[in-house]
Amino acid sequence: MSITTEVTAHYWALAVFFVGAAGLCCFMLSGGYLLGGKAHARSKNVPFESGIDPVGTARLRLSAKYYLVAMFFVIFDVEALYLYAWSTSIREVGWGGFCEAAVFILVLLAGLVYLVRIGALDWTPERSLRLRRSGPIAENQRRQP
């Protein structure tokens, strides 16, 4: 088989793949449009959450700490995936791979210790911690033996 025939066959397969993927997307979108409900009512656009009518507004203001903790979770979760992939190939990588994974874990542990030390993982702000320590509940707990 000549080189031009191989290249043409390769690009032909790629073109069939892209046309098939685009066709499947169009089919699913048009199928949902054609088979979906056509009724329009006032309650049609109201969100339905687990069988309960929604209460309050969706414009909930969250602290920046929430997003910070979420980013830390994602970072450490991705690192756990790397360690899982390493653990599946432990026999192939040998002691060199073990030493590299140990260094990787130590760097992660150092990062986690640093985050704890600077208070990045504290959910409550300093003001509420001070109030909790000096509030009336704390005084009642001090009086009880």
Beta-strand fraction estimate: under 5%
Q: Please trace the helix and strand order, writing H or E for each element.
A: HHHHH
Number of E-state strands: 0
**Helicity, as a percent range:** over 70%
* CA-atom Rg in angstroms: 28 Å
Number of helices: 5
Shape, please?
A: flat
Number of individual domains: 2
Give the N-terminus to C-terminus distance in angstroms: 92 Å
User: Largest beta sheet, briefly?
Assistant: none
Task: Return residue spans where pLDDT drops below 50 for at least 5 consecutive residues.
Answer: none
Class from helix and strand fractions: mainly alpha
Overall average pLDDT: 79
Please characterize this protein's 3D structure.
It is a single chain. The protein has helices spanning 3-35, 64-88, 90-118, 126-134, 136-143. It is mainly alpha-helical and 145 residues long. The chain folds into two domains: 1-35; 62-134. The longest helix is centred in the N-terminal third of the chain and has 33 residues, at 3-35. The chain is flat.
Q: How are the SSEs placed, and which strands pair?
A:
Elements: H1 3-35, H2 64-88, H3 90-118, H4 126-134, H5 136-143
Helix pairs in contact: 2-3
InterPro entries: NAD(P)H_OxRDtase_bac/plastid, NADH_UbQ/plastoQ_OxRdtase_su3, NDAH_ubi_oxred_su3_sf
Family: Belongs to the complex I subunit 3 family.
Subunit structure: NDH-1 is composed of 13 different subunits. Subunits NuoA, H, J, K, L, M, N constitute the membrane sector of the complex.
